[in-house]
User: Which sequence fits this backbone?
């Protein structure tokens, strides 16, 4: 009986292949480097806001400790157990994205209502919805492969378009165009890796780009930010919407080949907003130099190729 139960438990898990170890190594190094750089980039802000230079990195450490067992489980689960999870992931993702729109639950940060407050923590449901969307798209593309192998007509775009459109709509309800762009980029990456013909891929990008272009044009703030992306140092942009981009470029430029040294960034001292989140790559470039930024890009490349 004991042997039978043990064999049942073993059957629930698939043996990791060499690709898993390649991915695991890349993720482990990126995670460790990420924690170190979050500590460096957030220390000044944390000390100013809470009196503790380690406040932000400790919170990230808690999230990491919670995520590691889940990551181990996800890596070892067999495909047959992922299928029912993927089937419900779209509904779960949509439900998560609705939460910030509920009065009293959602929180507005930086003009975007895409956060919820749980005690002293703020959580962005769209981060979890990204994972759900990836699982759902993978399941739908699996259906596409099955139909194609049987000689049946199947369009990968038509299979995933309704669900993706729903999630994008819910993200845009919170006025978070940036996150919507990330969602669209993830879907584009999935379709590209799945072998979608370049002609269809270009058509998908064109169709998806039209509503985003309309949203940018119809908002003066978004239009100004878009223009500042190309010229953040102009007189009109530098002390306004271009400040963040300009100082991120300054940080990267001042790092040189080898960097100014770990912990010695000048931009994180109030010059670069969100230095430990959106613009942490600029701090990496400033402190670790070109070699540090190339190392990060190479690790992500290994992760993708793995």
Assistant:
């Amino acid at each position: 009986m004991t042997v039978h139960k043990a064999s049942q438990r073993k059957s629930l898990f698939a043996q990791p292949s060499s690709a898993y170890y390649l991915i695991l190594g890349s993720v482990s190094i990126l995670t460790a480097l990420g924690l170190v750089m979050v500590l460096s980039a957030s220390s000044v802000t944390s000390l100013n806001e809470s009196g503790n230079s380690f406040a932000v990195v400790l919170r990230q450490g808690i999230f990491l400790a919670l995520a590691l067992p889940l990551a181990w489980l996800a890596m070892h689960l067999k495909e047959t157990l992922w299928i029912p999870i993927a089937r419900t992931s779209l509904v779960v993702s949509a439900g998560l994205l609705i939460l910030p729109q509920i009065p009293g639950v959602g929180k507005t940060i930086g003009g975007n209502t895409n956060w919820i407050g749980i005690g002293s923590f703020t959580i962005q449901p769209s981060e979890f919805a990204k994972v759900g969307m990836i699982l759902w798209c993978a399941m739908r593309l699996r259906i596409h492969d099955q139909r194609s192998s049987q000689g049946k007509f199947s369009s990968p775009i038509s299979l995933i378009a309704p669900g993706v459109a729903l999630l994008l709509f819910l993200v845009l309800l919170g006025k978070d165009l940036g996150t919507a762009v990330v969602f669209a980029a993830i879907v584009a990456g999935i379709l590209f890796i799945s072998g979608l013909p370049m002609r269809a891929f270009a058509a998908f990008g064109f169709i998806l780009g039209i509503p985003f272009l309309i949203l940018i044009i119809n908002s003066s703030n978004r239009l100004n930010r878009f223009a500042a992306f190309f010229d953040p140092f102009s007189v009109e942009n530098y002390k306004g919407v271009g400040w963040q981009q300009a100082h991120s470029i300054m940080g990267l430029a001042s790092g040189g080949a080898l960097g100014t040294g770990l912990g010695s960034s000048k931009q994180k001292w109030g010059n670069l907003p969100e230095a430990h989140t959106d613009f942490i790559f600029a701090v990496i470039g400033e402190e670790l130099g070109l070699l540090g930024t190339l190392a990060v890009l190479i690790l992500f490349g290994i992760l993708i190729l793995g």
About this structure: The chain has a mean pLDDT of 87. The chain has two domains: 17-76+228-306, 81-218. Residues 18-50 form the longest helix (33 residues).
